[in-house]
Amino acid sequence: MTLPLPSRPSLARLRDQARALQRACRAREPAALRRLAAIFPDAAGETLALAKAQSVVAREYGFASWPRLKAHVEATMVRVLSDAEVLAERWLGLAEAGDLVALNRSLAVGKGRLEAARDLMRRDLVRYQGFVQAIIGGLADRRARIRFECAHDLDIFGDAASRPYLVPLMEDPVPRVRWMAMHALSCHACGEKPDALEAEVGARIARAAVHDPSSKVRRHAVVALGLAGAGAELLRDLAASDTDSKVRRNAEWALSQTPRSG
Question: pLDDT at position 230, please?
């Protein structure tokens, strides 16, 4: 059976697969030897060369040889780069035009495409800083949707210099803007974040987890503490006694992410 090649294949990972197969065959692992025999019935696993292991991997993905698989992956990466260049120029242009509505609509792409375009944008530091400043300006927009989306953007494109602009949004009159600001300040999955929350930020999120009038904000605040690995004592209290069942469940999850929970 032919294996499906990822839509964004990595040549380094494919090489690692071939090396792993070579090691496993030389160790006479049964599953690896069966893979080898399915492609090269007469090959000796104990002395398997890397080139032959690469050929096995290529055949498993439906290519006649390793060079053909390599050429396909390299061509795919060229297309990805072209896509990233198109996205980067589009986003920079929309930011320079001040069209935050179109910009946020255009930013709705997959994480891989977004990060590839962001890396290209950062090569032109002046334009990139202007792009980030346009997003920061959107945090003060009268439209809650724009404030929400720009806070979300800074989760990905923000850095240490943009963090102070997110802090006031934790007191925004619209609940979803408040919780998005907390998420953007605490989540390490997308953009650049400090190893530990600033004291003021951590204190505000902790207060929101207990006192915010919106249950959704309280639930997100609890998650934010978990993402930042902070507030273990408070999380224990909330997990044990909060009146909102989702807050309790989120606090239990947050504790599992918090190194100080032990």
Answer: 86
